[in-house]
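Chapter summary example.
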Amino acid sequence: METVKFGIIGCGLMGREFASSAMRWVHLPDMDVKPEIIAICDKNLTPEMESWYRDGLGTITQATTDYKELIANPAVDAVYCAVPHNLHEDFFINIIRAGKHLMGEKPFGIDKKANDNIMKAIGENPGVFVRCSSEFPFTPAMQRLCRMIEDDVFGDIIEVESGFLHSSDLNTEKPINWKRMIEFNGEYGVMGDLGMHPTHVPFRAGWVPLNVRAYLSNLVKERPGKDGCGEECETWDNATMFCEAQHPGGGTFPMTIKTQRIAPGEKNTWYLTVRGMKRSVKFSTKNINRIEILEYDGGEQAWQVIDMGHETTFKSVTGGIFEFGFSDAILQMWAGFLYELKHGKPKTKFSGCVTPEEAALSHRLFTASLESHKERSTVTV
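The structure predicted for these 381 residues follows.
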């Protein structure tokens, strides 16, 4: 079993998710590579935070508030970096130049200029393996949908709809946070925060947006600040992107991508619908173990509802009849990262993490969407 020694920069929610996955690695009996987290870094590292990592992992040899100390550690092979968007450019570039493999959080730069600089650093360091985080495609139902894409079963595609919706900002009394500030989150707003999720599978499928007409909404223009007084909310809450997409086999079709932080009735919903002349398919994390398929041969139209079990790409000790959850998706994503790092290619087309090129395409789309909304026109991506 090969071991890859990791450092985590950003020990909050997603840092803990990765650490929890590392603790559960025995769930994946067929993996021939594993992570070992030996270093942690957080600007606001507290004794309680450090103890959680040390006690849970038992492998921490370095804890620091300075990320440059972590990436200077010769024992660290790879880094998971989960920091606010305004830090991506400097942190990611310095991690890459230090020769550390990188799993970086979305959106891979606060804006296109930052992403261009990150891409330049990647190009200058070809020995460094770099990927972007997006866990939802690793659910068994979604992997089945992805196999349908690979098998090209849809016939001519009529349309595609993909989105990521939640209601975390529906409460107008929720205090302002960094995601509502351009300085930290960037002008993309919700697109940068959530947009990699609904674009991951379409981009991997080769459904490239040629142009976009976007509508962006700043629904809550002021929120309580630290002192209780109102502070301006500078970023977009919701975004709808209407795209003309290119099919790799030829032709185009309409593709709608939605990212919303204010979506009444949605807790945390990621979905993808593909409608074709021969088959159609629907998936939503509202029913994470369910996929709906419609096959049309000229007769009656009927949706078939299939409940998936724990039928994972990377074999788990969990029995196949049991349900799959979010923490399982995180574990499968990290298996995908380490498998590709070791073997040089993903196990299957859709079981690899977001590539830097796919992240760069998302920046082109989001930048065009800003212009489209501003000019109230369709803009080339």
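To summarize the output: The radius of gyration is 21 Å.
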